[in-house]
Each structure stands twice: as structure tokens, then as C-alpha cells.
Design goal:
Elements lengths: L6 H14 L4 E3 L6 H11 L3 E3 L14 E3 L4 H13 L6 E7 L2 H13 L5 E8 L4 H15 L3 E5 L2 H12 L7 E3 L6 H4 L3 H4 L3 E4 L8 H12 L6 H18 L6 H7 L5 E3 L2 E5 L5 E2 L4 E6 L2 E4 L24 H4 L3
Parallel strand pairs: 1-2, 2-3, 4-5, 4-6, 6-7, 7-8
Antiparallel strand pairs: 8-12, 9-10, 10-11, 12-13
Helix pairs in contact: 1-2, 3-4, 5-6
Length: 326
């Protein structure tokens, strides 16, 4: 079902799902439609798997909502750790989307920056205003004079940001937050994005047989292996596995999905917490290298006892700035 980008569209989409008597839903709601999704999901009373980060407070959505993206706090810590090492940023700006998610993530990243990294400023990507408003933000980004800019934007906001910066002769190093590691974004301006980094999850082909099966299934449908597609596959797979295990619809199915034991999947072996978020989200740092998104550097993984501002237990070796010739 298509929510058409409006609250009314969300309501109509869930009404259609109710009439179809679905046993579960996988969705990727826009940040400004979160409240409409929560209201509709509660009325539908079936499991809803969300593929991205959509709220700073997962606990208030406890019930039938499951999150396959990271929490804002965890993403902010990983992003700032990456800026320290291996990126070795010195001066950072932040561009955020005009949603509660964007505001919360930008503030969390700014709060976690260590003293060694200067904050050049925070700009909000315009939801309206067209090319003129976008050009104004692009000029503000240039005025940051930052060696790296964190792009805390998703979807159309990320597309618009890349388009605006691509029209400028000055190249800007960008660190994109979760949800942006996708071929369609890279294709918009591959030269601009060369060397830029992306926060995301693991490569499904490298996490085991379930991940390999996910890639084969997506290939069979001609679908990209982007973040939303892999997580949507994982959500649907978990619902089908619970049904195969004997769970029926409604409360019994939700209870089966709340199993406390780790479960191998397309994103690795994960455990869902009581509020239906992922315990220890499997972050990876990706970099566009000669047109290919590579996981970089090898072994760059958070550990249970790590924390801000440097949570990876080792100093940087070769920074991204050095690799970009800065």
C-alpha cells in the first residue's frame, strides 16, 4: 500500500490492510508521518516492522511495533566515534531534515562531539521553498568551512541535499546517517560522493545463509540491496518464521516475535529488547571507493563496553582525510 506521503494516505493504506486481513506489516514511514503510523498501527493490532529510525522514545511505542533500525542515541554515538576515528575530522557541520527525528539526531550528534572536533553549526534542510531555499542551505554549508558535514537526512531530503551540493564546484566530504546507503543516492552525484562515508548495517551477503538468501530473493525481484529492502525482507521473514512455528494472528504472533533469544537473520544475529528495538545494533561504516560502497575499515565494530566519544578501543591508522589527500 502507498501512504502517498500524507496522514490521510496512511489512514487509507491501513484501512485497506485491515480489509485484506493481513497478519503483519513492514513499513518505512517518513519522519513527519510517524504519529499517523503509530495511531494506525495500534488500531490494526498486528505486528508492524519499521525499517528505519523514527522516534527518540521507543518505549512509548511498546506493543505491536518492532524497530529494525538503530536508536537515535546509538546512532549518534557511532557517528561521533567514526568522526574521531577513522575519519579524523577537525571541524564538523550538521545538516538535518525538518522532522522530530532530524532535530533529535542532530542534537545528539552535537552533544557527543568531543572537544577535539569543532562544531561549525547546524542547518535544517527545507521541507518547502524549492530550489531557492535549497540553494540557501547549500551556501550555509559552504560557510561552515567544515572538513566534514554530517548529513542527518533521509529520502527526498537526502536526494535534494546531494543535488544542491552537486551543482556547486566545491566538493564537500559528507557522513550520511543510517538509511542512506543506497545505489539510487550514489547515482545522483557519484563524483561528489566519492570518498564520502555512510553509517549503516552489515552487508547481508557476509552475515550468513539467511543474508545470502535475502540477496538472492531481492535479485529475483530485481530489487536493490539497499537498507530499506534488506530490513523489509528481515521483517517479513521474522513474521513468516513465527507463523511457521505455530503462532497465529494478533497477540499470539506478537508474543512469538518477542522471543528473548538471539535470532540469525539478514542483518546478522540480533536480539529484540522488551521495547522491540534491537539490542546492540550491528553498525558498519561504509565509504564510496571508486563508485563502490565498501565497508571500511575492516574490523571497525563497536563493542558492548564502548562509549562516547571514542568507543572502538584503538587510535586511527589511516584516516579518511588522509585517503582523500587532505
Amino acid at each position: 500500500q502507498d501512504d502517498r506521503g500524507t496522514a490521510a494516505g496512511v489512514k487509507q493504506a491501513f484501512q485497506a490492510l485491515r480489509r485484506a486481513k493481513v497478519v503483519g506489516v513492514v513499513a518505512a514511514p517518513r519522519g513527519d508521518l510517524v504519529d499517523a503510523y503509530w495511531k494506525a498501527a495500534r488500531q490494526l493490532k498486528v505486528p508492524l516492522f519499521v525499517t528505519g529510525v523514527v522516534t527518540p522514545d521507543l518505549t512509548r511505542n511498546r506493543g505491536n511495533v518492532f524497530h529494525l533500525g538503530p536508536t537515535i542515541a546509538a546512532e549518534a554515538v557511532f557517528a561521533t566515534d567514526a568522526l574521531v576515528a577513522p575519519i579524523a575530522a577537525r571541524r564538523v557541520g550538521i545538516v538535518t531534515e525538518d522532522t522530530p527525528y532530524g532535530d533529535a539526531l542532530a542534537l545528539a550528534i552535537a552533544r557527543n562531539l568531543p572537544e577535539r572536533i569543532a562544531l561549525a553549526g547546524i542547518e535544517t534542510w527545507p521541507a518547502e521553498g524549492g530550489d531557492e531555499a535549497a540553494a540557501a542551505v547549500a551556501r550555509a554549508i559552504e560557510a561552515f568551512e567544515a572538513d566534514w558535514v554530517v548529513a542527518a537526512v533521509r529520502g527526498r531530503s537526502a536526494d535534494g541535499l546531494v543535488d544542491a551540493l552537486a551543482s556547486d564546484a566545491r566538493r564537500q566530504a559528507l557522513l550520511f546517517t543510517d538509511g542512506n546507503r543506497r545505489a539510487s543516492l550514489v547515482a545522483r552525484a557519484p563524483e561528489l560522493l566519492e570518498g564520502c562515508c555512510f553509517v549503516g548495517g552489515p552487508d547481508p551477503e557476509l552475515v550468513g545463509r539467511v543474508g545470502e538468501a535475502a540477496v538472492l530473493a531481492l535479485d529475483g525481484r530485481g530489487a536493490p540491496h539497499d537498507v530499506a529492502a534488506v530490513r523489509a525482507y528481515e521483517g517479513a521473514r521474522r513474521i513468516l518464521a513465527a507463523l511457521d512455528g505455530g503462532a497465529t494472528k494478533g497477540r499470539k504472533l506478537i508474543a512469538a516475535l518477542e522471543a528473548p533469544d538471539p535470532l540469525a537473520g539478514a542483518m546478522g544475529t540480533l536480539t529484540l529488547l522488551a521495547h522491540h528495538g534491537i539490542r546492540l545494533f550491528p553498525f558498519r561504516l561504509w565509504q564510496l571507493n571508486k563508485g563502490v560502497l565498501d565497508s571500511w575499515p575492516e574490523g571497525f565494530l563497536p563493542t558492548e563496553d564502548c562509549g562516547p566519544p571514542l568507543g572502538f578501543g584503538r587510535p586511527p591508522t589511516a584516516s579518511v582525510n588522509e585517503r582523500r589527500g587532505k
